[in-house]
Design goal:
This protein has 18 helices and no strands. By secondary structure, the chain is mainly alpha-helical. The protein has one domain: Up-down Bundle (Sodium/glucose cotransporter), CATH 1.20.1730.10. The longest helix is centred in the middle third of the chain and has 52 residues.
């Protein structure tokens, strides 16, 4: 490597060392706890908001969002705008309720909340059903993170394809196994701070480069088409329908993703958890909108990128010096690592508390489960050939459609039965999957019909049960 490359690697290694230090700190603090209940973690609003924000960002923000801005232009902003409405709806009604119910039930997982209050046999069935859905969908989600990490190391340091994948995934698995849940929260919070700085740096740098060659910028963007800078190229009704779908996806993301709900369950109190709303929403919107605009401007600066999802690291390697490149490399790693780490912890907690503990009294520690899940997801991602955007959006929408209705019914204390809960999970997931397979997802995200059908299945089952009881009487 040249000296400049050595400096970039050094900055990356410092970030990596800080991440491992955060994991070790989380491990030390975890030893002081005598309970698996997430409420005993007692996280402040800053830890809740920033760790949830970093978890929610994922590889999608530094790869997929850049690619969408680069390819679609300003209309790509409709995604974060739609997501904002869903986040506002979720934070208005649910995080404090999730925390309150988690404290009451001593929940260790999202499925503990959904299944709480049911008889033993029904509770067991619901936990296993929800766990199966979580593991299937989150395997696709974390595979997207491994693919993004592979693209990151390949683009930043020129490592071979398979080595990049194995190296990135191995680093995440190691520090996840060390820190567990609390280590994940600490590492995510550190990585959120890095992401704020990296986002500002990236947007400022690309604007400066475009400004210095404004003639070339406008010439390059002209080739992208007349609608590249049009926010609503297909009209307002189509835009509203599109945003409605992503609002539903955001709503389902908050309610149905265990790596997110675990943060709300771990808040110090319902009020403290609720007060994290502006930290979370501000972080998500700032990073998402800024990286979309980065992709839009990048189209005019570097118009012939073969893989726009790798545009962030490619831009800095081409146009910036080693220090700034090293900083952005650290930022990309932190962003992808935050979600990968949280997903692994959530999957491991699901296996431990919702599968193994349900089936046998002998429950292993978390770290060997993390290692096994890491190896399985690595093997799967090595055989996948899909974009980060496709994998992420499919995984979160399908999981949200399956679990959000059951979670909503439980937190709001609506009527339910032993049968209505599993039926709502199955119906919501199936409806979303069929909607996506039909191709309608291009106009309305599958989370919207999935959540509606899931809720409908619960209420219809309850109504039929009440009618049957009335006839029997």
């Amino acid at each position: 490597m040249h000296r400049a490359d050595d400096l970039s690697v050094l900055i990356f290694l410092v970030t990596l060392a800080a991440t491992f230090a955060a994991s070790f700190l989380g491990r030390a603090h975890t030893r002081q706890l005598n309970s698996d209940a997430l409420a005993d973690q007692k996280l402040s609003k800053w830890l809740v908001g920033l760790s949830a924000g970093a978890t929610g960002n994922s590889a999608f923000i530094v790869t997929g969002v850049v690619g969408l801005g680069y390819t679609l232009g300003l209309q790509a902003l409709l995604l974060p705008f739609g997501w904002l409405f869903g986040d506002i709806a979720f934070w208005t009604f649910f995080p404090d309720g999730i925390n309150r119910l988690g404290r009451k039930t001593k929940a260790a997982t999202l499925t503990d909340v959904i299944a709480s209050g049911l008889p033993a046999v029904a509770r067991r069935r619901v936990k296993l059903l929800a766990a199966a859905l979580i593991l299937i969908c989150l395997t696709g989600y974390i595979s997207a993170q491994w693919i993004a990490g592979q693209k990151f190391l390949e683009g930043a340091f020129g490592f071979p394809h398979l080595l990049s994948l194995l190296l990135f995934a191995t680093l995440i698995v190691l520090y996840t196994g060390i820190g567990g849940f609390r280590g994940s929260v600490y590492a995510d919070t550190l990585q959120a701070v890095i992401r704020i700085f990296g986002t500002s740096l990236a947007l400022g740098a690309v604007i400066v480069v475009a400004w210095r060659n404004s003639a070339g910028f406008w010439e390059n963007t002209a080739v992208a088409g007349t609608q590249f800078f049009v926010l609503l190229p297909h009209g307002l009704p189509a835009a509203l329908l599109f945003m409605l779908g992503f609002a539903a996806a955001a709503f389902g993301f908050g309610l149905g993703q265990p790596q997110m709900t675990s943060r709300y369950l771990a808040g110090r109190s319902p009020a403290e958890t609720r007060s994290a709303w502006w930290i979370f929403i501000g972080f998500i919107q700032f990073t998402w909108i800024a990286m979309t605009i980065f992709g839009v401007v990048l189209r005019g600066v570097m118009p012939a990128i073969a893989d726009p999802e790798a545009g962030l690291s490619l831009f800095f390697r081409t146009n910036m010096g080693p220090v700034l490149t090293g900083l952005i490399v650290a930022d990309i790693f932190a962003t992808i690592a935050a979600t990968s780490n949280s997903l692994l912890v959530a999957m491991a907690q699901t296996v431990k508390f919702d599968v193994i503990e349900v089936l046998t009294p002998r429950v292993p520690p978390l770290w060997p489960i993390v290692l096994l899940l890491g190896l399985i997801s690595m093997a799967i991602s090595a055989r996948l050939d899909r974009s980060v955007v496709s994998l992420v959006l499919s995984s979160i929408s399908l999981l949200g459609a399956g679990l959000a209705p059951a979670m909503m019914v439980r937190v709001l204390d609506w009527r339910r039965t032993n049968l209505s809960v599993p039926l709502s999970i199955i119906a919501g997931f199936a409806a979303a999957a069929l909607w996506k397979l039909s191709g309608f997802g291009a106009f309305l995200n599958e989370a919207a019909p999935g959540i509606a059908i899931g809720l409908g299945a619960n209420f219809l089952t309850v109504a039929l049960r009440r009618k049957g009881t009335a006839i029997a009487e």
